[in-house]
Model the fold of this input.
Amino acid sequence: MKNDMQENSARQLPEEEIDVLELVRKVWAERKLVLRWCGFAAIVGLIVAFSIPKEYTASAVLVPETSSNKNSLGGLGALASMAGINMGSMSDADAVNPDLYPDVVSSVPFAIGLFPVEVGTLDGKLTTDLYDYLKNHIRRPWWGVALSAPFKALGWCISLFREEMPESDGTNVDPFRLMPDENRIVEALGHRISVAVDKKNSLVTLSVTMQDPLIAATLADTVMRNLQTYVTDYRTNKARNDLKFTQQLYDEAQHDYYSAQQRYARYMDANQNVVRRSVRTEQERLQNEVNLAYNVYNQVAQQLQLARAKVQESTPVYAVVKPACVPLRAARPSKILILGGFVFLAFAMAAGWILFGREACARFRQVKES
Done:
């Protein structure tokens, strides 16, 4: 029984090899057709590759300050760091965790804050704000313009029969209620700005993709600074509110102390040579008021200094590992990849037509004629 199975498998193996070789021979016999298809696909691929506008990506890498508790955890902190677990964020629950940076950057208020950023192209031919650049100066491939033309014409016809909505210029934007143009710009920024967080090394990478290298670098630097400002404002919010309240108490205590001093001085000037008991009693009362006001003033002054130090202590520090710079090469499209994809697809279609498509069409004709 085993000998029969071995003989059958031995017979099937050369048959399969012969079938594969036969398929290769069929394709090779029609190599001129395959070359014509691949040549046509190469021309189409080159047209497509050069029709897609270039995109440049600028990136910046920074390390945010996190409250590390490795000393308190001992060896556990080192083991957690090796495993890629960030234990530093556990001791600072009121701060924005770096894992939330992508959500912060993609939020509507953050994107709206980028609308008035002034940008300029590398050739110096255009200088405008980011909102106007994304709305009116982004290039698209020719087929995108051709496909969108009917929809624009339809929208123009519909606008004749309904009330036209006012266009936005990117100023005085209401985050709660965005206009259609504003919403499109916010979505475009969400696709062009990305944030990657390396939990193991605590590195935050900001990447911005634009059709101009200078605009990409400018926006990457702006996003980095705006993110730093956002996190700083969040972490120091309570400390700044405490400082503001302490400053008010300090001003009131200073005013009360100076007023008590003035009352005591005026009373002493008016009663220099008077030896009445009532005068001495009033003098002691005013002196006590001055002493009490001074003690309060002194304590509040110390609290004010502590509040200022608390604001400075709560302010995070960022180490910029890699600042944003103007990219020299386009990140996309990859012309070689597009060309190779079109040629491979043409080869696969030509081989499929030679091996299966031609016979299938011939059989279909025979069935139709019969």
Remarks:
- Residues 10-18, 69-77, 87-94 have pLDDT under 50 and may be disordered.
- The longest helix spans residues 277-314.
- The longest strand covers residues 56-64.
